[in-house]
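S2.1 Query sequence (ROK family protein)
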Amino acid sequence: MVGMRTSRSSRAAVTAGDVFTLIRSGDGTTTRTRIGHATDLSRTAVAARVAALQDAGLVLERAEAASSPGRPAAGLTVNPGAGVVLAAAIGRSRTQLGVCNLAGDLLAMCSVDQEIGVGPDELMPTVVQTLDALLEECGHRRDEVRGVGMSIPGTADPERVCTLDSPAISGWDGVPLTPFLRTVTNAPVLLDNDANVIVLAERRGQRDRFEDMLLIKASTGLGAGIVAGGALQRGKRGAAGEFGHTKVEAAAGISCRCGDTGCLEAVASGWALVRELRDHGRHVAHLRDVVELALSGDAEARRLIRDSGRHVGEVLAGAVNLLNPEALVVAGDMAGAYDLFVAGLRESVYGNATALATRELRILPSTHGEKSSVVGSATLILDHVLSAEAIDAAL
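Output structure tokens follow.
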């Protein structure tokens, strides 16, 4: 909060929504005095805007411990109980669902396993029914839902709320998902790539200090989320970070699920590792099974996961040179065997990227682990429905 200024050019232009944004970006110790310093608003103007937010139930006030003799200041914080958002992280073989309060805390969460290749007409009714049940489980009504955040393993069309190009879940491209959710809520629905939403979750937590971050989601498929200069980079068509279909020598001639050959995914993704073990007579259905085998000491599973990290690192070395991130964060089911995967990843990244680009590079596991996609999907919609513009419109 210290040193923050609003983007408005005059006192009159600073709205209640702007004040709410400052409160939300704080740590629960935001006071009227600090808001005044950050916005140049008069004490009276600050009080009026805070009162509007309190009347709407969006902001709570509590006394802070006094740092000096006298009356303690009143700290302002977002009221986490002023509504909820729904989150749906759709995957190839598993969909994770959750309900979060306005602080982004998970109130309820569950997973739905599905057949690979299931389409939206078959899966979305189950998603909707499960979200409705989770909402009831945590004691909230449908009219308290402020929005729905969704993620998918592929490129998303934010205008139509559908996928554009996702070989991981064929049959979904071009199918709008909002209509499925209208039996639960008429609130806004947002959709983004799964790696992008995990980046949002990381940036809302303890890693907001990383202005340049590269996050990889290594699961059934491979994807990346890119933060440069503090901003999430989606690219012209939202396809930034689709590094899994980069051609690599190790995959030469090997078929990929995208229909091409030679892609990184063909040798380093979860589905490729499952295929490799099955070809050797092993009974595995998902990358999670491979991770479990590796953690139990299975030599072949351990080798495959380390090799996956090595192949991924060969491609990411170029991205590290290009972007010079401060942090490289590993998320997804492969992170269940983090030490094995990162051993191969480090070998290739540090062996192929420049010494300058890797000098201060930190390789880290995702903050939220298996909950990353749900927390990220919730963050996606929270950033929208709690934006200054949305709050001003609601008031």
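Residues 16-78 form a domain with the Arc Repressor Mutant, subunit A fold (CATH 1.10.10.10). Residues 299-323 form the longest helix (25 residues).
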